[in-house]
Amino acid sequence: MNRIIVAGARGFFGSAVVRILRAEGCAPLIASRRPGGDLMLDVEDRGSVRKEIRARDVIVDATAPFQTRTATLVDEAIAAGADVVDLSDSLGYGKLVWTRDGAARDRGVRVLNACSSVSVLSAFAIERSGIREPVAVHGFLAPATRDTANRGAAESLLSSVGQSIEVQRGGELRHVRGWMETREFAALRRRGRLTEMADAVTLPRVWPSLRDVDFWVDPNTRGAGALLGVLARAPLLSPIVARFAPYGMGFARILGSREGILAYEVEGVAGERRSIVFTGHESFLMAAIPAALAAMRLASGEPCPAGIVPVHQHVSVGALGAALTRYGIRIEQREAR
Predict the structure, then answer these.
(1) For burial by CB atoms within 10 Å, which of 20, 86, 316, 330 has the most?
(2) Is 66 left (phi over 0), alpha (psi -120 to 50) or beta?
(3) How far is CA 150 from CA 53, 156, 191, in A?
(4) In this predicted structure, what is the pLDDT of residue 253?
(5) Largest CA distance in the chain
């Protein structure tokens, strides 16, 4: 088996990937900008990347927030002949990575972008729904904030609040203002606020029938939704809020929920609507399981097409479903009302 390197392995989701890889019998290399791991690796420094990676390595990139990332790691990996699996949820980063498709194909390199809850579980939900010609997918997340309140998650969330974001509507990407719209998910009895996610670009590449793709979030912490609603109407306050975010994360770990919900409402061309719901006590593992499985697949030499790999080809539906169950994630299908 080829080397598996986890960049950002000391972060919250990077450590979750390491945990799963080890549980599955792998020995990943711990990579961080700080000493003490197996490799010192700064994903934004070309010299650092060139020094540490080599051909046929599989790099799991868990270095958030991806909203501010460049394509340095992907470019250097392609040049070296190494594969990359990232946990990005960023639409902008996904667009950037897709411009490297030709270069990756030429070098025989596999790049698995958004190999996480977004967008691998999004694709899994569509396939699980049984709707073959989906026209709309509405994602919903209420995170287990007592576990997931961390700097990267906070910065990812704040990047959409009150800002110009892109969603897929009417078959094209449109700019709207984040967090200003709400949507009720009747099957969950929950309401979310509109945010930007990579699904808007990753899913239509697989299902051209999709006309509407959006994502909605409930902070799952008492008072946080109302506070962020105020911020959305006064975006000039964002720098102040970002400054005090560490204190907010402390409150979230106290007041937030211990169990998260990830759900997708899928609509078909014939008007059928179904909801696929993922829950679990350690629901944050949903973000790490797809990347860990994909890294093992690539490192073992299992065939996978070169280039930017479509999200429905990252891992098999059967293997993903079995792993989710193995790690305590419940999967339920409900008729959307």
Answers:
(1) 86
(2) alpha
(3) 28, 10, 23
(4) 44
(5) 56
Cα(285)–Cα(63) distance, rounded to whole angstroms? 16
CA nearest to 111, candidates 68, 80, 134, 144: 80
Q: What's the first-to-final CA gap in the chain, in angstroms?
A: 47
**C-alpha distances out from residue 109 to 53, 80, 82, 90, 304, Å:** 14, 9, 6, 21, 10
Quote the CA–CA distance of 121 and 275 in Å, as a whole number. 13
Helices 12-23 and 151-158: angle between axes, nearest 10 degrees: 120
Angle at 290 between CA 274 and CA 324, to 5 degrees: 60
SS3 65: coil
Is the torsion defined by CA of 66, 93, 225, 238 positive or negative? positive
Q: Does the pLDDT of residue 147 top 60, yes or no? A: no
Whether residue 55 has pLDDT greater than 50: yes
CA distances to 95, 150, 283 from 197, rounded to whole Å, are 12, 18, 19
Read off the pLDDT of residues 274-300 as tens digits, 9 standing for 90 and up.
Answer: 999 999 989 999 999 999 999 999 999
Measured distance CA(278)–CA(262) in Å, rounded: 5
Residue type, 192: G
Structure tokens at 226: 């109302």
Q: Give me the count of residues in the chain.
A: 337
Q: pTM here?
A: 0.91
- Domains of the chain plus CATH, in order, are 4-116+286-327 (3.40.50.720), 119-284 (3.30.360.10)
Q: Which whole-number Å values give the CA distances from 89 to 105, 118, 156, 217, in the listed order? A: 23, 6, 8, 13
Residue-wise pLDDT tens digits, 14-24: 999 999 999 99
Placement of tokens 């897929």 in the chain: 168
